Amino acid sequence: MTRAEFSAELQALGAKIREKRSVAGLSQEGLADACGLDRTYVGGVERGERNLGFVNLLRIAKALEVDPSDLLTGIRAGSGE
Q1: Does residue 14 belong to any structural domain of this protein?
Q2: pLDDT tens digit sequence for 19-47
Q3: Residue 52: which CATH number?
Q4: How far apart are the C-alpha atoms of 68 and 65, rounded to whole Å?
Q5: How far is the first Cα of the chain from the last one, in angstroms, to the nearest whole number?
Q6: What is the span of the domain harbouring residue 55?
Q7: Which of 9, 13, 59, 76 could form a disulfide with 35 if both were Cys (CB 3.0 to 4.6 A apart)?
Q8: Quick check: is 78 in a domain?
Q9: How many domains does the chain fold into?
Q10: Distance CA 40, CA 28 (A)
C-alpha cells in the first residue's frame, strides 16, 4: 500500500496533534523545540503531508504530555478517521 492510500489517516493524525498542541498552548515552533524536530516537519505532520515515524510520534506525545495512544484514538486503517 502506498502513502497516498493512507492520506485520510495521516490527516486525522495531524488534526489530533494540532488539537492537542492547541490545548497545550504551544505554537508549532514551540512543539518542534520541545520534541527536537524542525518546525516545518511538525507543520507537515499536522497537514497530513508527512508519514510520521514511531520515534517521532513518541517525541511528540512526550512533548504534549499525552500517551501516544491518545494521538491514535479513533484512527483506523482504511477508515479515513
Answers
A1: yes
A2: 999 999 999 999 999 999 999 999 999 99
A3: 1.10.260.40
A4: 9
A5: 17
A6: 3-70
A7: 59
A8: no
A9: 1
A10: 8
